Amino acid sequence: MSVLVRRGNGELLIPDEKMAEYLSMGYSVIDSNGKVLVEPEPTTVPQYKELVATLRRQVKDLQTQVNALTAKIDALKTSHSVRKPDDGQQPTNSTPEKEPAQNAEKPAKNAKQK
Which string of b and e fits 24-60 if b means at least 16 CB within 10 Å? Predict the structure, then answer.
């Protein structure tokens, strides 16, 4: 099968197995309408600078999202830790208390019987 690639204003039809090679040389993989399907690897300093700027913007946006979600998690933790029952009663312990042991005398296991 063949792949259509473009660099500048030139388009080539190449075999599939050569696609990675052409991408590394700066060619874009395009469809029959000219829409770019796969962007080429950067090959020049300005292209690398553009890539770095794009990645820095993405990092900044993701860090903002992380900070917002962390604040939301903290707010949810505090709101759930101080929640009280709505009926005005004191909160109850979720584990039932053990009943006190009865003071029944039991013979010792090692005691000799007569």
Answer: eeebbbbeeeeeeeeebeeeeeeeeeeeeeeeeeeee
58: in domain: yes
Domain for residue 104, yes or no? Answer: no
Residue 100 counted as domain residue: no
Domain that holds residue 58: 43-80
pLDDT reported for residue 64 = 97
How many domains does the chain fold into? 2
> Mean pLDDT per 10-residue run, the chain (114 residues)?
89 91 90 88 88 96 97 90 60 55 56 53
Cα 88 to Cα 46: distance, rounded to the nearest angstrom: 67
- Secondary structure class of 79 (helix, strand, coil): helix
Separation in Å, CA 32 to CA 24, 37, 53, 73:
21, 10, 31, 48
